[in-house]
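Narrative of activities, Objective 1.

The group set out to show that a structural description can be obtained from nothing but a protein's sequence at a throughput compatible with the screening campaign. Below is one input-output pair from the validation batch, recorded exactly as produced.
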Amino acid sequence: MRKIIMDVDTGSDDAIAILAAIQSDELDLIGITTVAGNKRLEYTTENTLRVLELAGVKIPVYSGCREPLVCNLLPNRHGDYDGMTGVGEEVGEDGEKLEYHTDELPLPPSHGRAEEEHAVFYLVNTLLHSDEPITLVLSGPMTNLAMALRIDARITEHIEEIVFMGGGFKEFNSTAASEFNIWNDPEAAQIVLTCGVPITMVPLDATHKANFTLEDAGELRGWKKPAADFFATIIEKRVAAYNAFQPQELADSAPIHDALALAYLIEPEVLENVRLMRVDVDISGGFADGQTICDTRTFPDRTPNVHVALGANRGKFTALMKQLINQY
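Output recorded for this entry:
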């Protein structure tokens, strides 16, 4: 089994990724670190604990960074903008506000709590003392790992691969040039992307090609299982939000971004058109702030450092996720 640590900002799609990782025979989820991103840190940590209780497992959770490294220090850089282009105060048919992520997942409050050790120190200590390489799955801003790399770069010697959901090649959602996870902490992303270990990037260009539909939600509801019902609820709420704010090419559908990055470790064929490129992050604070700059030239100025997925196989992805959730 491949040992993994998940770094999450749970979040609806992170929740499905966690549930899938737990049920995979190929993965050994040894720890979860949380970061502020989709929601504030207290929510992303509580939501992660709720998901683990739904799954009926005990996996240590370490609460991490509440703020990006530096981008919030310049008051005019992001201003009051939260990275959610086009999102308004619309209300759905159920009378609730349309949101990609709610503060609290629709699950009972957790009875557990996060470990005392901070996520950054957990990453440093665990990686430095691991007898075998560990794969890191990042599904939020990369602040925790960037901090760990700055504390002790020797941790790279123990990282087998970094797989992250984030960035865009031609697809963006926070600004005209950036995706939310990268835009939220561009400096952290640049530190991680240039750390020298194998990296696979699962950008919006891939996740938008592997959406779940309302029909999928209906199938899940038919199983009459708590985890499947939860997944169906996530799909339905995300479809409502995407229909309102970011309509997808596939009607009545929504991406479950983070689960696709996790699925790649179980079944690599869920990603398609994967190309090795030079990828850097714009940290200028200008129009392209937070952009993942993918150099497609045959002879780039700098050494290629990231495998970028430009497509995905929706059929394989949805089948895999259903298979794993059905095991609960």
